[in-house]
Amino acid sequence: MRQRRLKAGIAVGAVAALVLSACASERVEDAEDLGYDPDATLIIGTAGEVTSLDPIYTADGESIRVARMIYDTLLDIRPGTTEVVPGLATSWDSDPSGTSWTFELRDDVTFHDGEPFNAEAVCANFERYHNLEGAAQSPPYYWRLLSGGFANNEPEAGLGEPNYQSCEATDEFTAVIDLAEPTSRFPRLLSLHVFGMHSPAALEEYNASDLGPWGDVQWPEYSTDHPTGTGPFRFVEWDQATQEVRLERNDDYWGETPTVAEVIFRAIPDETQRVESLLTGEIHGFDLPAPAHWDTLEAEGMNLLVRDTPVNLLYVAFTQEGNEALQDLRVRRAIAHALNREGLVNALMPEGAEVATQFTPPSLPGWADDVITYEYDPDLARDLLAEAGYDEDNPLELTFLWPTEVTRPYMPSPQDMIELFAPDLEAVGIEVEPISMVWGTEFIPAVIAEGEGDLHFLGWTGDYPDAFNFIGTWFASANAEFGFDNPELFEKMAQADQTVEEAERIALYEELNREIMEFLPGVPISHMPNAIVLAPNVEGVVQGPLANERFDQARILTE
Amino acid sequence: MAMESANRPSPPGPLGQRKAEKIDRLAELAATPPDERGGSVVQESFRRLRRSPMAIVGGAIIAVFVILAIIGPYIAPYHPIATIAIDQVRPGVIPGPSAEHWFGVDQLGRDVYSRILVGARHSLLVGVVATLIGFTAGAIIGGVAGAAYGLGGRVGRAIDSVLMRFMDMLLALPTLLLAASMAAILRPSLQAVMIAVGVAVVPIFARLLRGSMIAQAQRDYVLAAQALGVRRRKIVMAHVFPNSLAPVIVQATLTLAVAIIDAAALSFLGLGNPDTAVPEWGVMLAQAQGQIFTRPTLAVYPAVAIIIVALGFTLLGEAMREALDPKLRR
User: Fold this and answer.
1) B81 to chain A nearest CA, in Å?
2) Which residue has the higher pLDDT, A250 or A34?
3) A210 and A151, same structural domain?
4) Pairwise CA distance, residues A515 & A504, whole Å
């Protein structure tokens, strides 16, 4: 008996020694280790798939998120800020007129296919944008915004004269871009990864610019299988069956070497399922968790990175074209007074969200503190409607379009939003017909291109820190979404856009914001903080106010 | 019987076949001759029904549901779309049940108890209208096919064959899938749900009525009428058709349960009333899903409501089927 006990004691001791030595050896390895696994794969859940891997053809967050990994831009945004910093260009300057811009480029960059990056490559990229033809003129929203047109506009595209004139490589690493008119958009819009620099050789080899004749877009091989940039990650594959985009580390990256070996973007359209996937460890993180899930995610120990100075706006637009009632300022004011915006912000949005007073977020210069405001006042709304000739016997009837299958940084849950606002409007005697449409395929074309419906929800996340990126998006020219013609306003907007002097331009923005709120083309609703959530073992991701995180410095910690 | 089944091909696939067999069995029941007491099938069945506890429970549930659906909006403590407690809700914070709000409030501060009550009317309306659509269209198609078959002739058989093979094709599809496809084609609306669910159950009624009419055609009274020289057309219209309706009414009760569940499913999938503020159990369930981490009980109320009502109709329907079926009589 005693002997047996002794044996057992020896055995236990031996096991303990083994375990301890194993621990010790692990610890030694850890000390040599970096504290994170450089061979790890980072898996990010996304709400949807990319539309094209060639970002010039995209304007949505899901696509640009992937482009940010593969491509670099001439100008960049410092992580965690809205500050514009050098990217592939080390410096840039314009002549006094603001129309001729000289970019000095980095001399140590090569594309993923081994081609050198230089001034000729930059000019090849700009010339390509400028000379896009046929169906390829339809998707590049941001090029049309930047330049206004192409070298040969398709007659059906309804575009104007291009502002872009030419690009010249004055020496190997100096490119000069000439514009017709100065614009506040240039060059800051170039920090958006839509304008990532492509390898000219790859563009040509895989027919990147050939989307077929005007009409239906046919994606070329480049857009689906061969994106070639200079970024921290190389493209591996886009598996449309599993809805995954797979990227691998670019070991020759000119910047800081990426700290993960692979990145996978996996589309998981359902929010609840994204939360579950994160909690079970299937993914390492996802962007824009619903505010209702923030507490749960934090309680589960997840890393919730809140972007707490939101550069975004949610609004209700009035589509005036073809609706006499909405052309009446009294009706527009009545609607603004009828909506309980504060109720919506409190019920649906996280702490730090605020009711918007104008179409520019307060964090941007150009925001005016003395615009006319429209308090929640149903009685006043009813009076204004009565003045405009609408009452119980002759009620105002409006359709209200709202999107499904989407969360945006400014818009937590469209269905809850419509369920709050439709009754608000009905309470003052407006008969509302809510119409739901799928975000990407129905809603956006209907409200942006066709100007359907009377009211709709939409919003904007800033691309670069300038008020024109907000008010200029909607009110610089007549468009289908708002459906009004106000030449005086458009004229002033153009004047502000072309003002090179910063202080002068900002004063003009403030004046414009005051005028816009008097004219009331829509009701600005809110600015909302939003978040990105990561597993507790992921570090190195810095959330930015423009929601433009790169995951190249993400570190997956070893236990 | 053997001759019968020769005229009765089953729709493709095991699902359609099972459905078809169930319908055909019900169709034959009405043709069973009256038992030794000499009462009619319907009288006899009703007598049995009154003694069945299943029927009593089912009937009681339906009675309560119908009463609530009618008076619900008047006894609801709050307006169902009034966001009365909006001050108390925040993202991730929803107050639970209290003396003021028996079932608590939802993510927009609306009273859940009031919404469930008012939602009952909606569910009843959709269920009844959808069943009526299916019943009417099914009765017309089944009646035409049955009459054509009964009146005989090569043309009659051909009409019957074409109509029934088309119905069998529809029957082979799961009802919910058929309804969802229909609803997706129509623009999402309350009417679309009613039509979609109604159309999805048409083949059930059609096959049932046709089968029932053919079964009746073998009965003695038809033979007697023929012997008396009554015209075939009159026999089919005035005697066979009305006598074939009993199993169809049983089926309508069972279909109401399916219609209510399917209508809730369509709303849950976002194919229902686009004004989602209007309380509807399926929509409430879908919205509760978004709050599953915050207040999971929000999903329980509409789910339990749907289950209880569907259970009521199923119990009553099954009890009726049992009462009609001589093989199941105790």
Assistant:
1) 7
2) A250
3) yes
4) 17
Rounded distance, CA A34 to CA A29, Å? 10
For B277, name the nearest residue in chain A, comparing CA atoms only. A419
- CATH number for the domain spanning A549: value is 3.40.190.10
* Boundaries of every domain in chain B: 39-89+101-328
Q: Are strands A41-46 and A262-267 parallel, antiparallel or unpaired?
A: parallel
Q: Which of A233, A265, A287 is the last residue of a domain?
A: A233
Statement to judge: residues A195 and A82 lie in one domain: yes
Residue A29: band (very low, low, confident or very high) from pLDDT cuts 50, 70, 90: very low
Asked if residues B267 and B193 have their Cβ atoms less than 8 Å apart, the reply is yes
Contact B276 A435 (CB under 8 A): no
Are the beta carbons of A85 and A77 closer than 8 angstroms?
Answer: yes
Q: Based on the domain organization, do A544 and A524 belong to the same domain?
A: no
Of A500, A494, A480, A492, residue with least CA distance to A516: A492
A555 and A407 in one domain? no
Contacts of A23 (CB under 8 A, 6+ apart): none
| B residues 253-292 closer than 8 Å to A (CB) | 270, 274-277, 287, 289-292
Whole-angstrom Cα distance, residue A404 to residue A47? 12
Chain A residue set in contact with B, beta carbons under 8 Å: 271-272, 275, 290-296, 343, 346-350, 404, 412-413, 415-416, 418-420, 422-423, 433-436
CB within 8 Å of A486: residues ≥ 6 apart:
A475, A519
Closest Cβ opposite residue A419 in set B90, B276, B292: B276
Same domain, A190 and A91: yes
Query: Which pLDDT tens digit goes with each residue over A78-111?
Result: 998 888 999 999 999 999 999 999 999 999 999 9
Is residue A179 predicted with pLDDT exceeding 90? Answer: yes
Phi and psi based region of residue A499 (left: phi greater than 0; alpha: psi -120 to 50; beta: remaining): beta
First to last CA, chain B: 24
Q: Which domain holds residue A378?
A: 312-528
Residues A170/A164, Cβ–Cβ less than 8 Å? no
End-to-end CA separation in angstroms for chain A: 42
Q: Which fold has domain B39-89+101-328?
A: MetI-like fold (1.10.3720)
The answer on A274 and A196 residing in a single domain is no
In Å, how far is A283's CA from the nearest CA of chain B?
A: 19
Angstrom distances, CA of residue B47 to CA of A175, A344, B279, B322, B329: 96, 58, 39, 12, 12
* B298: closest CA of chain A, how far (Å): 14
- The verdict on A94 and A17 lying in the same domain is no
Contact A482, A474 (CB under 8 A): yes
Which pLDDT score, from 0 to 100, does residue A20 have?
A: 47
Is B90 close to A346, i.e. CB distance below 8 A? yes
Is the full-model pTM beyond 0.90?
Answer: no
Q: Residue A501 maps to which CATH number?
A: 3.10.105.10
Q: Percent of chain A scored above 70 by pLDDT?
A: 94
Q: What is the pLDDT of residues A485-520, one digit of tens each?
A: 999 999 999 999 999 888 999 999 999 999 999 999
* Average pLDDT for B190-215: 89
Tokens of B124: 């009843």
The token pair that represents B195 in the structure block: 């039509």
What residues 106-135 of chain B have any CB closer than 8 A to a CB of chain A? 107-109
Q: Are residues A329 and A444 in the same domain?
A: yes
Domain boundary among A214, A233, A252: A233
Domain count, chain A: 3
A410-450: pLDDT as tens digits: 998 898 999 999 999 999 999 999 998 888 778 988 998 88
What pLDDT is stored for residue A33 in this prediction?
66
Specify the DSSP class assigned to residue B33.
P
**Cα A375 to Cα A354: distance, rounded to the nearest angstrom:** 14
